[in-house]
Write the structure tokens for this entry.
Amino acid sequence: MAIPLQSRLPEVGTTIFTVMSALANAHEAVNLSQGFPDFDCSSRLKELVTHHMKAGHNQYAPMPGVPALREQLVRKFEQQHGHAYDSEKEVTVTAGATQAIFTAILALVHPGDEVIIIEPAYDCYAPAIHMAGGKVIRVPLDIRGRDMDTSLIAAALTEQTRLIIINSPHNPTGVCFSESSMQSLERLLADTDVMVLSDEVYEHIVFDDKVHYGLAKYPGLRERGVVVSSFGKTYHNTGWKLGYCFAPEDLMTEFRKVHQFNVFSVNRPMQHAFSDLLAEERSYDDLSAFYQEKRDFFCRAVAGSRFDFTASEGTYFQLLDYGSIAQEPD
Ligand code: PMP
């Protein structure tokens, strides 16, 4: 007898990444569909992980993360954005950015709340909002202006709006939100109790003269914001699933209430290894140059084709417009 199941996510099937990767394997095609780096991670980092496993760091880490790593993350973040979060109370190490995003949404969104996402949006936001009982409100990215459009966000705000999810550098368009749009979001939310979740996993992959304007730079956004990032994108090890998030103490307290029952704590030897590596490394500029060379190579190769495109400003994605080839919906 089949058990009658009621799906938590009736609209959701297998993710497009799994479908496309299987098709690419079956047809021996180059797999351009799933965003992950296929470069080896640093041998120093591997040495450090091995060292910490052999040194016996193989039991549960503290719930919010290894203290030395949290201190290094706070130091790195302050150097980058000019704001020092409290390493005890305002940073948590997570099982990748995905878990941080899921946990933040579960902690902050209540049934009936509205959550604004900017479309096209990374695929884990909407299902997490649904599972929290929230309602997804979709606002399009200004693709021609290559920015978020805060006038559309303003028009979407209601009494029920609880959270806005932003993502810059943006997956999949490679757009970096401008300083003026971040300032305009800050002004827009000043007299509201709307929170902001800022997915900044591509913070260190920014091209040409573009700058990554992180949420924490803006006091009015920082006080209502959770900033999420991931080691996977910066250190070529998406398979290690290690990420982290920053938030003011009141938000982080709620985040940790969910985090402790979601995973409790995450991979300990790798946390020690990253803590050592962050203490040794001080600059991330090489990563942008590394990817920019590849972006330029790819764009030169596609330039003669029927795809239309604007070169990506950040991330390791390059969006192509197939409008002159087919009219199929995406
Ligand atoms: N946010 C965005 C925008 C991403 O592209 C990804 C990974 N593709 C994630 C979050 C998830 O990061 P992680 O692998 O650390 O869970």
